[in-house]
Design goal:
Elements lengths: L8 H4 L47 H11 L6 E4 L1 H13 L6 E6 L4 H8 L3 E6 L8 H7 L4 E7 L11 H10 L3 E5 L21 E6 L12 E4 L2 H10 L7 H12 L1 H23 L4 E4 L6 E6 L2 H10 L5 E2 L9 E5 L3 H11 L4
Parallel strand pairs: 2-3, 2-4, 4-5, 5-6
Antiparallel strand pairs: 1-7, 6-7, 8-9, 9-11, 10-11
Bound molecules: pyridoxal-5'-phosphate.
C-alpha cells in the first residue's frame, strides 16, 4: 500500500508549529522563551506540576507511562483530548472536504458522522448485517476511489458486540484506506485487542480511551495506536499543547491504581449479567442483546413510553430507536449495584 497517497497534500507539506521545547529540554534552565508567567501560578500548586508552564508537546511522560502499562512501544502512541479529538484529527489528516468520503457501518457511535459533517466530508451510508457484523457486500457496493476511511467500533456502541477479528483484518488487507477500530469498551470484553495487528497492517488505527473502565471521563484523555508514520502525522497537526498538565498528573495517579480499573470492569461485567437476566424475564422485553461493553441494548414494546416514565422518576437511559436496525431500542449503561437495583425496581413495573 502507498500509505502516503492517503494523506491530504497540504498536510504532507505542512510545516508544523514549533516551540523552543523542540530544540531544548524545556524543564531545564532559565525559561524565557514562551511568554509564560515565571512568577508562578494562581492555582494552589501540586508539587512537581508547574502549571505556570506549558505542558510537554511531545507527550513524553504519557507515552512512557501508558506504553509501559500496556506493553506498547512509545513511538506507536499518540494522545488526544478524549478519543473524540483523535476522530476529528483522523478525518482532517486523510479527507479532502467535498471530495473524499468515509464509510461508517451503522448503527454505531454517532461522533464519527458528526466529525465528518463538521469537516464537510461526505459519509456513505452502509449498514452492519443483522448480527451487527461487517457486511462486506454492502461496503463493496459503496466503496470508491475517494473512500479514505472506514470507521469500525468493537465492541460496537450501542449494540455491544465485538466485530469478528478476521473480518476486520480482511478489510485492512482488502482496501487501500485507513481502517479505524474504536476499542473504547475493550476492557469489558473477553476478547483481545487488535493493537498487535498494527505491525502487519499499516493502514490500521486503534482508538482507546480512559473515559470508560478507568473512570476518567472528566480528564478527557484518549489515545491511538498506529504505525509510526501515522503517529508522526498526528504530532504534526495537533494543537501544540493539547494534553494539559492536570490530565497528565491524573493519569500518573490512575495508572498507580490500575487494580481499581480491573475491579470496576469485573464488577460492571457481573452486574451486566445480572441485569440482563432480570430484564429477560419481563414480558414486554423483545430482546436484550449480548454485550461485551458497559451497557445493554434492549428492544422493548413501548420503548419510548418506558424511557419517558423512567425519566420522570429521575432515571435516564438513552433512546436509540432512531438509528437504523434499532427500532424500539434503548441503551442502558450499567450503573453501580445500588443504581441497577433502583432501575430494576422501576422498570419491572413498567415493562
Ligand atoms: C465508541 C466510542 N468511542 C469514543 C467515545 C468518546 O471517548 P472519549 O471520552 O475518549 O472522547 C465514546 C463515548 O461514549 C464511544 O462510545
Amino acid at each position: 500500500m502507498k500509505f502516503e497517497n492517503l494523506i491530504r497534500k497540504n498536510i504532507l507539506s505542512l510545516r508544523p508549529y514549533t516551540s523552543a521545547s523542540d530544540i531544548y529540554d524545556s524543564n531545564e534552565g532559565i525559561l524565557l522563551d514562551a511568554n509564560e508567567n515565571s512568577w508562578g501560578s494562581t492555582f494552589d500548586e501540586i508539587e512537581g506540576l508547574h502549571l505556570n508552564r506549558y505542558p510537554d508537546p511531545h507527550q513524553k511522560d504519557l507515552r512512557k507511562i501508558v506504553g509501559n502499562y500496556y506493553s506498547i512501544p512509545e513511538e506507536n502512541l499518540f494522545f488526544g483530548v478524549g478519543s473524540d479529538e483523535i476522530i476529528d484529527l483522523i478525518i482532517r489528516i486523510f479527507c479532502e472536504p467535498q471530495k473524499d468520503n468515509v464509510i461508517i457501518p451503522e448503527p454505531t457511535y454517532g461522533m464519527y458522522k458528526v466529525a465528518c459533517d463538521i469537516n464537510n466530508v461526505e459519509t456513505l451510508e452502509v449498514l452492519l448485517n443483522d448480527d451487527f457484523q461487517i457486511d462486506f457486500s454492502a461496503i463493496e457496493k459503496k466503496y470508491n476511489s475517494n473512500t479514505k476511511i472506514i470507521f469500525l467500533c468493537s465492541p460496537n456502541n450501542p449494540t455491544g458486540n465485538l466485530l469478528k477479528k478476521d473480518d476486520v483484518l480482511t478489510l485492512c488487507k482488502k482496501y487501500n484506506s485507513i481502517i479505524v477500530v474504536d476499542e473504547a469498551y475493550i476492557d469489558f470484553s473477553p476478547e483481545d485487542t487488535l493493537v498487535n495487528e498494527i505491525k502487519n497492517n499499516e493502514n490500521l488505527i486503534i482508538l482507546r480511551t480512559f473515559s470508560k473502565a478507568w473512570g476518567l471521563a472528566g480528564i478527557r484523555l484518549g489515545y491511538c495506536v498506529a504505525n509510526i508514520d501515522i503517529i508522526n502525522i498526528f504530532f504534526k497537526v495537533k494543537a501544540p499543547y493539547n494534553i494539559n498538565s492536570l490530565t497528565r498528573y491524573a493519569l500518573e495517579t490512575a495508572i498507580g491504581n490500575a487494580g481499581k480499573k480491573d475491579k470496576y470492569a469485573a464488577g460492571i461485567i457481573r452486574e451486566r449479567g445480572r441485569l440482563k437476566n432480570q430484564l429477560e424475564t419481563l414480558p414486554g422485553v423483545i430482546a436484550v442483546y449480548n454485550s461485551d461493553a458497559n451497557y445493554l441494548l434492549v428492544k422493548c414494546k413501548n420503548s419510548k413510553e418506558i424511557q419517558k416514565q423512567l425519566a420522570e422518576k429521575g432515571i435516564i437511559i438513552r433512546d436509540r430507536s432512531s438509528q437504523p436496525k434499532l427500532e424500539s431500542c434503548f441503551r442502558i449503561s450499567i450503573g453501580s449495584e445500588e443504581e441497577n437495583d433502583i432501575l430494576w425496581n422501576a422498570i419491572k413495573k413498567l415493562v
